[in-house]
Design a protein that fits this description.
By secondary structure, the chain is an alpha+beta fold. It is built from four helices and four strands; from the N terminus they run H-H-H-E-E-H-E-E. The chain has a two-stranded antiparallel ribbon with strand order 1-2. A hairpin with a 2-residue loop joins strand 1 and strand 2.
Length: 182
């Protein structure tokens, strides 16, 4: 006649779980783990399923935490890019002085012109890259793509950095579904 085994206490089960985890990671067979701990192979199998469930939940929590940290970094970069773009926009006052002579004598004619500068498009490109990276991290696949269009902004050669072209035709964010024409 088979003897009924007494149920394990919570502290015994916790100890067994630690040992099962350790032996499993050392590639022990379930039967060998059972023999070592004095429990059935079925119990080892059930405990391993419980442990794998816990390990999966911990992995998902760690992944979510890592994604949140990366998204926070992207948010900071985007905020700085918006600030830099706003700072790159300005109103320039151009004063042009012309000298001349009249019957009364020499005169000076001043022409004042206010000009809005469009801002540095490189910052907008950085903002779009931040949005794209955030969408990629969050696995956002939408049927509508984010498209930012800057239509023919004239940038005078004297005001632009060397590596910015004379005319920016468009800035387009590529979605995960491919490029979207601007």
């Amino acid at each position: 006649m088979r003897q009924l085994r007494q149920p394990r206490s919570e502290s015994q089960r916790a100890r067994d779980l630690l040992l099962i985890s350790q032996y499993y990671k050392e590639d022990w067979a379930q039967q060998d783990i059972a023999k070592q701990l004095g429990i059935s192979q079925a119990t080892v199998s059930k405990e391993l399923k419980d442990l794998e469930s816990v390990w999966t939940q911990e992995s998902l929590a760690n992944l979510t935490e890592k994604k949140n940290r990366e998204i926070s970094k992207i948010d900071l970069v985007e905020l700085e890019a918006w600030d830099a773009w706003a700072a790159s926009r300005s109103i320039k006052l151009q004063i042009q002085t012309e000298a001349g002579e009249t019957a009364r004598g020499a005169i000076s004619l001043e022409k004042r012109r206010r000009e809005n500068t469009p801002g540095d498009p490189r910052f907008l490109d950085l903002i779009l890259k931040c949005i794209s990276q955030r969408c990629e991290l969050l696995n956002l696949k939408t049927s509508m793509s984010i498209v930012a269009k800057i239509t023919r902004i004239e940038i005078h050669k004297s005001e632009r950095p060397r590596d910015v072209p004379d005319v920016v035709d468009s800035v387009v964010l590529e979605s995960s579904e491919g490029s979207v024409a601007g």
